[in-house]
């Protein structure tokens, strides 16, 4: 007995310890990079020159410096004076400070130093900012309960042209963010070709890590090194064979020839922030990231690196490729080659090892990586490399998709359901029912503890699933109690009855849980995304509930009845004798009718697509800015008005709404900007057609490129594919325009019917527009405050354009004003063909300011001003600053459940059913296994049919419930 208490205590202490480790110790660190900005003279920094240090997170967003980073810079400067491996930097330590306005680090030098040495000392290694510890019982909440961070991602091809996302791109991004299926991000393709990603959580560190993962193409290539250029000299020096044609873009000069399928890649600089000094002319890519089966952090030559295991095809290619390089190397071969193989990532050579012996199954990427960069690179490579370059265009904080009232009602319903189970067990089984109560409480505590350790995101359906899993675990207690009752009825004493009850029920409990555990294991191994997460959660629930019912239950039973010889286990119902066999034909008939009715209703009498919720079908997504802050109650009132007007798709039970906030701490309050998602069956059909055509366009482009990059290029066949692809582009544009018109209809319904008087006219966010010579001025209304530091960053971002000389952003009276000077005056235009309300408003304001200007000049100035309007809007979105634009975004989004996820789920279910049948057949008889599978085929269609007949739609929550039945 004492041993049992010790083991139970150790289990609980271990669970608490894991929770403490996860929430108190392993809270992680935010990795920050320091960029030095200074006026240099031939690579030297003169004494007395002010040096500005700008901190940024992994996503590239500027971060305000804190005292900890200032202290770290001071420590590195001091270390340079005593560490012989570092160049000495004689800095004026008294000048080291944080600028109170820009929150950047400032200091100066006592003695002149080279910029590269300065960077090597204080900017090469990343800075670490420890995340604050959480409470012991902290668990990350899902988007429905807490909200998260939304990213809008644009995709670009190798030529810098914006391209549309295909299904593979969406799936790769989803897998990068949710490797175990526990974090539950939302990844959708938008009708304009962009990708929307929403991650649960609410910290700057979460957003930075996600941004870095999303913006990494992960394009891994293995190429033969044909020639090496450079060394210590810079590309712009005379005689160098590599020319820097523009910042970050390099080409070979006329004396060198870059052959077909060859590329020029720079080596990633050893010192962060420095320009490349070594360049490689490389042959065609023989292996790519698609040939990698697994990636993992490892150690190579004393430094952290990324190890890779190839697929069987990749291993064969790698062996023949490295053998070829080895045979032609100068050291081990005939000297016709360099003997080097370059491993490049996203256009940079990470390493170029000498091939001393051919390799096959594995390889290693070494480089100047931090631990966090290695972990993220391994994640990216495991999920798959992208054929395009992603770029985050906007980042916003979103509130929960469920209101506080809805969440409270749901939580109380779950508590009541669990409480009812406990009451029934206590009343029906009296004293021994306390065992069931204790077992359930133990199972709940252990499940939550383990999920917290795994970092699982808790959503409302997930919590409901846990309640259901734990509630169903009471079956084990019932089996045991009924066995004990039978033994007592046969005049056995209490100790013998308890021993026999637990002993004889154990095999049935194990059989029932093993089959369910087998299903969960197969779902985890074969499924993807939420299906995989469901499998892992179910396995945890089964293991903990079995431990609670059998081990903890036996301990509590011994504690309650340890000194007793008799006990009363009441039997209120008695033996129920019903003619089940006699009624079997009637039951067969009723079941068959219900299944047939459900199938006909699902597939024949209604459009099957109408039976799925927007998790599967997608819908329209409208971002709305109100004239004032509104709370959830006002939003719901507007949705009721829409439903009363016949717009059922905008009713409270159908439309999904989420607020937007500027910062993480504001979640839960009223907001001036909200996102509306609603079904649109016509747009969904158009989206499906668009997706097919865009996937065809992407496939034709890939096939054409593959033909051109072969060892024997097939230009004629590739050109034919190009013509076929170009013929589809007008159809793609037409479908995009038709979808756009559908979203405009919904936006107008929200403005005029649901919220009359609360949404301004489109274009009203433009407060001022003017043009004079080469100068354009623009003023926009803001929701959020724009401080001076953010205004300076915006000025720098906008001024990076090649055709802009200067850009100045300032804040005034809750608005933002932009003044831009172009290198040349705006070109006059015959027509003004911009159809957006903001563009029309800009043209009107410019025309009013120019009393006697001609139409062509006004058109040219208005087009230039609208370009700056779009550029300013994108830059503000990067800073999470919202404008008063009534409809900042109007798109149709794809379903959250991708085709690959559906296929993997169906395959997992098929294998799981086969596993159940084989286990039951091996454990009992084959016909019992067949009977178990037939019973499942009976239960699921009936449940699904009843749901459809009752008007419910299938979403991810319903799918989870159906999986629980299995």
Give a written overview of the molecule:
The chain is of the alpha+beta class. It has 6 domains: 31-130; 148-216, Alpha-Beta Plaits; 220-385, 2-Layer Sandwich (Gyrase A, domain 2); 404-593 and 899-965, Multidrug efflux transporter AcrB transmembrane fold (Up-down Bundle), CATH 1.20.1640.10; 619-753, no CATH class; 766-885, no CATH class. Helices cover 47% and strands 20% of the residues. The protein contains 24 helices and 32 strands. Strands 9, 10, 11, 12, 24, 25, 26, 27 and 32 form a 9-stranded antiparallel β-sheet that branches. Strand 11 (186-189) and strand 12 (195-200) form a beta hairpin. Helix 8 (404-429) packs parallel to helix 10, helix 9 (433-454) packs antiparallel against helix 10 and helix 10 (460-472) runs parallel beside helix 24. Residues 232-239 have low confidence and may be disordered.
């Amino acid at each position: 007995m004492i041993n049992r208490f010790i083991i139970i205590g150790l289990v609980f202490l271990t669970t608490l310890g894991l929770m403490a480790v996860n929430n108190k110790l392993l809270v992680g660190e935010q990795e920050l990079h320091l960029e030095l900005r200074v006026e240099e003279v031939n690579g030297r920094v003169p004494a007395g020159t002010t040096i500005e240090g700008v901190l940024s997170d992994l996503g590239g967003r500027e971060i305000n410096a804190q005292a900890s980073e200032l202290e770290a810079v001071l420590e590195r400067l001091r270390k340079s004076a005593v560490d012989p491996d570092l160049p000495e930097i004689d800095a004026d330590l008294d000048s080291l400070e944080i600028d109170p306005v820009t929150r950047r680090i400032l200091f100066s030098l006592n003695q002149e130093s080279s910029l590269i040495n300065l960077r090597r000392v204080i900017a090469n290694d990343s800075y670490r900012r420890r995340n604050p510890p959480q409470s012991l019982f902290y668990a990350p909440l899902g988007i429905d309960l807490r909200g998260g961070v939304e990213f809008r991602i644009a995709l670009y091809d190798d030529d810098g042209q914006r391209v549309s996302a295909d299904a593979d791109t969406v799936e790769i991004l989803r897998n990068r963010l949710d490797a175990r299926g526990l974090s539950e991000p939302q990844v959708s393709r938008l009708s304009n070709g962009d990708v929307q990603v929403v991650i649960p959580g609410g910290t700057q560190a979460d957003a930075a890590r996600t941004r870095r993962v999303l913006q990494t193409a992960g394009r891994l290539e293995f190429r033969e090194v044909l020639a090496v250029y450079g060394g210590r000299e810079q590309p712009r020096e005379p005689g160098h064979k590599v020319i820097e044609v523009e910042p970050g873009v390099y080409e070979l000069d006329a004396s060198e020839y870059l052959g077909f399928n060859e590329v020029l890649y720079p080596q990633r600089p050893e010192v962060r922030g420095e320009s490349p000094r070594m360049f490689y002319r490389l042959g065609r890519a023989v292996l790519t990231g698609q040939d990698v089966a697994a990636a993992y952090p490892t150690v190579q030559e004393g430094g952290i690196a990324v190890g890779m295991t190839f697929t069987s095809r990749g291993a064969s290619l790698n062996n023949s490729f490295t053998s070829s390089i080895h045979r032609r190397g100068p050291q081990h071969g005939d000297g016709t080659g360099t003997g080097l193989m370059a491993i490049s990532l996203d256009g940079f050579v990470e390493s170029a090892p000498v091939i001393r012996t051919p390799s096959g199954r594995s390889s290693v990427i070494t480089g100047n990586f931090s631990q966090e960069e290695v972990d993220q690179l391994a994640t990216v490579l495991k999920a798959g490399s992208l054929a395009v370059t992603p770029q985050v265009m906007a980042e916003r904080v979103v509130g929960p998709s469920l209101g506080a009232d809805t969440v409270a009602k749901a939580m109380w319903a779950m508590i009541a359901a669990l409480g009812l189970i406990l009451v029934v067990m206590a009343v029906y089984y009296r004293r021994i029912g306390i065992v069931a109560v204790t077992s359930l409480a133990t199972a709940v505590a252990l499940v939550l503890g383990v999920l917290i350790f795994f970092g699982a995101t808790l959503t409302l359906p997930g919590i409901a699933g846990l309640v259901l899993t734990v509630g169903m675990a009471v079956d084990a207690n019932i089996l045991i109690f009924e066995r004990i009752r039978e033994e007592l009825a046969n005049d056995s004493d209490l100790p013998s009855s308890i021993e026999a009850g637990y002993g004889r029920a154990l095999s049935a409990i194990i059989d029932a849980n093993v089959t369910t555990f087998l299903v969960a294991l197969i779902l985890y191994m074969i499924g993807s995304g939420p299906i995989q997460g469901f499998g892992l959660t179910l396995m945890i629930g089964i293991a903990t509930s079995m431990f609670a019912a059998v081990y903890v239950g036996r301990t509590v039973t011994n504690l309650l009845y340890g000194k007793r010889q008799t006990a009363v286990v009441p039997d209120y119902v008695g033996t129920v004798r019903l003619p089940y066999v006699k009624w079997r034909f009637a039951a067969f008939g009723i079941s068959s009718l219900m299944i047939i009715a459900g199938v006909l209703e699902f597939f024949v009498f209604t459009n099957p697509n109408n039976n799925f919720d927007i998790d599967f079908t997608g819908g329209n997504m409208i971002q709305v800015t109100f004239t004032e802050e509104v709370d959830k109650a006002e939003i719901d009132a507007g949705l009721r008005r829409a439903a009363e007007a016949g717009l059922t798709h905008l009713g409270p039970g159908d439309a999904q709404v989420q607020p937007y906030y500027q910062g993480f701490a504001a979640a839960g309050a009223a907001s001036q900007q909200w996102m509306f998602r609603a079904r649109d069956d016509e747009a969904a059909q158009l989206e499906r057609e668009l997706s097919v055509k865009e996937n065809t366009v992407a496939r034709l482009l890939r096939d054409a490129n593959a033909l051109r990059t072969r060892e024997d290029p097939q230009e004629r066949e590739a050109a034919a594919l190009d013509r076929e692809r170009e013929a589809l582009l007008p159809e793609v544009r037409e479908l995009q325009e038709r979808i756009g018109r559908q979203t405009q209809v919904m936006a107008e319904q929200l403005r005029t019917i649901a919220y009359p008087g609360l949404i301004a006219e489109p274009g009203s966010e433009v407060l001022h527009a003017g043009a004079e010579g080469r100068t354009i001025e623009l003023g926009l209304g803001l929701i959020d405050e724009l401080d001076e530091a953010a205004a300076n960053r915006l000025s720098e971002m906008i001024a990076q354009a090649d055709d802009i000389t200067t850009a100045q952003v300032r804040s005034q009276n809750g608005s933002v004003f932009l003044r831009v000077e172009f290198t040349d005056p705006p070109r006059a235009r015959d027509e003004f063909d911009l159809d957006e309300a903001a563009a029309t408003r800009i043209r009107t304001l410019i025309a009013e300011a120019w009393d006697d200007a001609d139409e062509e000049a006004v058109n040219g100035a208005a087009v230039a001003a609208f370009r700056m309007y779009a550029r300013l809007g994108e830059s503000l979105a990067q800073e999470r600053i919202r404008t008063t634009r009534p409809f900042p975004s109007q798109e149709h989004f794809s379903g959250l459940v991708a085709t690959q996820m559906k296929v993997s789920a169906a395959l997992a279910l098929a294998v799981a059913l086969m596993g159940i049948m084989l286990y039951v057949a091996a454990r009992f008889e084959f016909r019992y296994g067949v009977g178990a599978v037939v019973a499942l085929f009976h239960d699921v269609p009936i449940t699904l049919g009843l749901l459809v007949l009752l008007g419910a739609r299938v979403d991810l929550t319903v799918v989870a419930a159906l999986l629980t039945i299995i």
